[in-house]
Design a protein that fits this description.
Strand content: under 5%
CATH architecture: Up-down Bundle
CATH topology: 3 helical TM bundles of succinate and fumarate reductases
Low-confidence stretches: 94-100
Structural class: mainly alpha
Shape: globular
Largest sheet: none
Helix content: over 70%
Distance between the termini: 68 Å
CATH class: Mainly Alpha
Radius of gyration: 22 Å
Order of helices and strands: HHHHHHHHHHHH
CATH superfamily: Fumarate reductase/succinate dehydrogenase, transmembrane subunit
Number of strands: 0
Length: 284
């Protein structure tokens, strides 16, 4: 082992108590809280395009301050939580092969869902947001189907992104990723309680386990609802969504709720819809 690696390891070991607690706290606030809000916002699409687009307009209303908010409250905590999570997973060992305790199995699942969630978020951000809003970078990734989400045409661009290529790969990928994130958060609440000394006794842990199971089931329902809202609309419905979004955009700009921004809007998809309609008529 190199001197640098040894120094880094010693640093983590010297500050392990603090690092683990910061890691645990960030997993709940702001990351866990943000995930709940994010899933609820996406699930609001089930209530209609207007509900979803109003929520997205509100999120983007800070304008130029939005990147600071995203990096300060989402991306920086996420990077820290992911890096420390990988270190904990690599340095920790489960004894589930020796002791058939349910908590050991949960520890193993927590590690695996953490890895799955990390891969999922890596590609989720690339797929919808493109990682970086740099014109040269976007010119490379957008022809490949990445950076597909347009906030000012939120519902229609989300649905189109889910059906990119006409296959089931993206819908399946998102379903697995969302459920992995849900389990990781729900079980993470339970382990965080142990880390912070909130439930130490077996009885307290059993009660906490039931509570976290209820929370996990509720989040799973919310997550699947958000997933279904994005994958279920057909092409005709997507065109209808874009028409509603365009009318709402004009009203939002006029009221000063959002600043005009061409980069946050989609190209018209009416022509694509006409082609799809002709194909359906031919099939009939």
């Amino acid at each position: 082992m190199s001197a640098q690696a040894t120094s880094e390891t010693n640093f983590f070991l010297r500050h392990e108590f603090l690092i683990r607690r910061v890691h645990s706290l960030l997993g709940i606030v702001p990351l866990g809280l943000y995930m709940v809000v994010h899933l609820a916002t996406n699930a609001s699409l089930l209530n209609g395009t207007e509900t979803f687009q109003r929520a997205v307009f509100l999120i983007h209303s800070p304008g130029k301050l939005l990147p600071l908010i995203e990096w300060g409250l989402i991306f920086t905590p996420l990077i820290f939580h992911a890096v420390i999570g990988v270190w904990i997973a690599k340095s920790g060992k489960s004894n589930s092969s020796q002791y058939r305790f349910r908590s050991n199995k949960r520890y193993t699942w927590q590690r695996w869902t953490g890895f799955i969630a990390l891969v999922y978020l890596f590609f989720h951000i690339l797929h919808l947001h493109g990682w970086f809003h740099i014109p040269a970078w976007e010119a490379i990734i957008r022809p490949l189907g990445f950076g597909a989400f347009r906030p000012f045409n939120a519902a229609s661009s989300l649905v189109q992104a889910m059906h990119e290529g006409g296959g089931f790969i993206w819908p399946a990928f998102y379903l697995v990723g969302v459920l992995a994130c849900v389990y990781h958060l729900a079980n993470g609440l339970w382990t965080s309680g142990i880390t912070w000394g909130l439930w130490i006794s077996p009885n307290a842990q059993a009660r906490a386990s039931k509570l976290c199971t209820v929370i996990g089931c509720g989040l799973a329902v919310l997550g699947v609802s958000a997933w279904w809202a994005a994958v279920s609309p057909n092409q005709e419905k997507t065109v209808e969504m874009q028409g509603i979004e365009n009318r709402m955009y004009d009203a939002a700009v006029e009221s000063g709720m959002v600043t005009p921004n061409v980069e946050k809007r989609s190209e018209p998809i009416e022509e694509t819809a006409e082609v799809a309609a002709r194909e359906r008529q031919s099939a009939e």
